[in-house]
Amino acid sequence: MGVREMAVIIGFATQVTGSSPGGGNLDGVISAQWSINPQISRLWELGSTTPYYTLGQNTKSANITVYGGGGPNITPAASTTCDDGPSRMTITIQAGSCTGASTCDINGETYFINSYSYSKGDTLGFGQQSYSMQQWLAPDGFTGTMKILEGVAEGNTTPWPSSTGADTGVTLATETQNNPHYTGTQGSVSAGFPGVGQCDTVTFGTVSSISNGDGQADGKVGQAQVSIPHQPIYF
Prior knowledge:
Blueprint: E1 9-19, E2 29-37, E3 40-43, E4 53-56, E5 59-67, E6 88-97, E7 106-120, E8 128-136, E9 146-150, E10 154-158, E11 171-172, E12 182-189, E13 197-209, E14 222-227, E15 230-234
Antiparallel strand pairs: 1-6, 2-5, 3-4, 5-8, 6-7, 7-8, 7-14, 9-15, 10-13, 10-14, 11-13, 12-13
């Protein structure tokens, strides 16, 4: 059973910072969530209710949402060497608490970005962008070296490249014969009065950069989703 270490985390007393290898910092943070995700394997044997051996390989996750324009520069790139992928962020969360000293802090830990999203659905609203991140912890008893390889980032952005739409912070890789873009429309409308709807152009493809979409952009809307695969290796 978990033990609650902090009764209340206070927003105005909580500080969240982050940076990436490409430069830039987190700014205008709206929300932050973090957790540990245990992956436990127990080896059982006949005649016993006590595991013969227990192997733990845990991951930690963090999700941070900021206002548009408030993120670091991220340039996804598939790994060509056995080094950590570039789509990562070093984050610090100093949680302000009603109960005094915090036990929930994250102090300069590196997380790899699994996905990025941008949303601005109101023409008079403010754009928001979110980063979903993961950190792999070394398995129990492992004393070697662990690296996190990165795959090809893929996603979609809308509207793009229309100059009338909000900048979603997503740049698709240059279109070639072997790496084309796929563009179509998506929309919805419902009966009633006035029975309004919307129709947008959406483009899918591989992604060369993310982050720093529009914050305030009156008269514009946009959305985007990007996934970035990662794989830990041990040697």
